[in-house]
Amino acid sequence: MSLKSNFELMADYNQWMNESIYESASNLSAEELSKDRGAFFGSIIGTLNHVLVGDTIWLKRFANHPSALKALDYVCGLENPQALNSIIHAKFESLKSARIEMDRAIQNFAHELTDEALSSVLSYNNTKGEPFAKNFGYLIQHFFNHQAHHRGQVSTLLNQAGIEIGVTDLLVSIPNE
């Protein structure tokens, strides 16, 4: 397995899990989605917004990679989130539509990656303006790990609200040989 094929698998898993989470969350009212449940980002909709905010921030950084990946042109047109807890889509349907578009961009991005790009360094500034230069492949791994971390929180919040989301294991996405 190559690093590229791993990221393609993670992008597909990401899309599948987001579809499942959003389908499950659609069974809740706007009030239930916005209810502060004590999570890092308060509510279900707050946490889902945070995942989209994180994706936007990281993909905008990735778009500045010297390999100039065309799949990230979509994110270049998005506004920069003001904070990690920004509610960029207060309405669930708008958030869901933005998630679908972002997942499409992530899948295209994963397919466009090259071994050369993955082994290179990406220089960027964090949200506080501090400069970093890190291995691009490791940063992409962090990107996918961040999504999984917060989706796990959302699945717990949904479960606590009486909503079952079904199977969440990456294992389901790994093809049989």
Can you give keywords for this protein?
58% helix; mainly alpha; 177 residues
In summary, what is this structure?
This protein has helices at 3-25, 30-34, 44-63, 73-76, 92-112, 115-118, 136-160; strands at residues 121-125, 131-135.
Q: Would you mind describing this structure in some detail?
A:
The chain has 177 residues and is mostly helical. Helix content is 58%, strand content 6%. The chain has seven helices and two strands; from the N terminus they run ααααααββα. The chain has a two-stranded antiparallel ribbon. A hairpin with a 5-residue loop joins strand 1 and strand 2. Helix 1 (3-25) runs antiparallel to helix 5. The protein is globular and about 45 Å long. The N and C termini lie close together (12 Å).
Low-confidence residue ranges: none
Instruction: Give the helix proportion (percent range).
Output: 55-70%
Alpha plus pi helix count: 7
Beta-strand portion reads 5-15%
Rg over alpha carbons: 16 Å
Quote the distance from N terminus to C terminus: 12 Å
Strand order of the largest sheet: 1-2
Number of strands: 2
